[in-house]
Amino acid sequence: MPLPSLCRIVPLIVVAIAGTALAQTASRGPAPFTQAEVTAGHADYAGYCSSCHGETLLGGGDAPPLGGAFFSSDWSKYSISKLYQFVSTAMPQGLEGELKSEEYSDIIAFLLAADGAKPGTASFDKNSNITIGSIITGMPAPAVINAPVSQSGAAQ
After folding, report:
1. CA distance 74 to 141
2. Is the pLDDT of residue 23 over 80?
3. Which of these CATH numbers, 1.10.760.10, 1.10.1040.10, 3.90.550.10, 3.30.70.2570, describes 31-145?
4. How far apart are CA 156 and CA 143, in angstroms?
5. Which long-range contacts (CB under 8 A, 24 or more apart) does 129-132 make?
6. Per the confidence metrics, is the pTM higher than 0.70?
7. What residues are paired with 60 via a beta bridge?
8. Over the range 29-67, which residues count as b (16 or more CB within 10 Å of their CB) and which as e?
9. For residue 126, what pLDDT is reported?
10. Could you report the per-residue pLDDT of 30-61, keeping only the tens digit for each?
11. Distance (Å, rounded) from C-alpha 96 to C-alpha 89?
């Protein structure tokens, strides 16, 4: 294919791919948690999780990343209830299962929002069968991850 033709086709392909990604993101409805739960979860994450998983959810050492492609590839096919069950029985290391149910719920709301899920009006339901891949985008949400952390309720 001649170079001028290729130069005209490549931008069209890029626009088509971007449009598909945007349509997939736009079609995701609100997630089953509130912004207040995300805010509380950010504080709880900072207190209980960030020392291993990092402030920006990138992981470290033996702790895996909790956002972006790694999280999405591991958890997209599972339900919110499956994630809650895992986190509430296996985390945080050394305090497995010892946080309050609300703290686990809020941390998961934060993790999902940090991975692109949009908060809604319904409170977090730890028994939800909603598939994680249906609400997250798989792209880190810097506005959520880098938001100031409220210190109320978090472990210090």
Report:
1. 18
2. no
3. 1.10.760.10
4. 23
5. 129/79, 129/80, 129/81, 130/31, 130/32, 130/79, 130/80, 131/76, 131/77, 131/78, 131/79, 132/75, 132/76, 132/77, 132/78, 132/79, 132/80, 132/83
6. yes
7. 63
8. eebbbbeebbbbbbbbbbbbbbebbbebbbbeeebebbb
9. 97
10. 999 999 999 999 999 999 999 999 999 999 88
11. 6
Amino acid symbol at 129: N
Percent of the chain with pLDDT over 70: 79
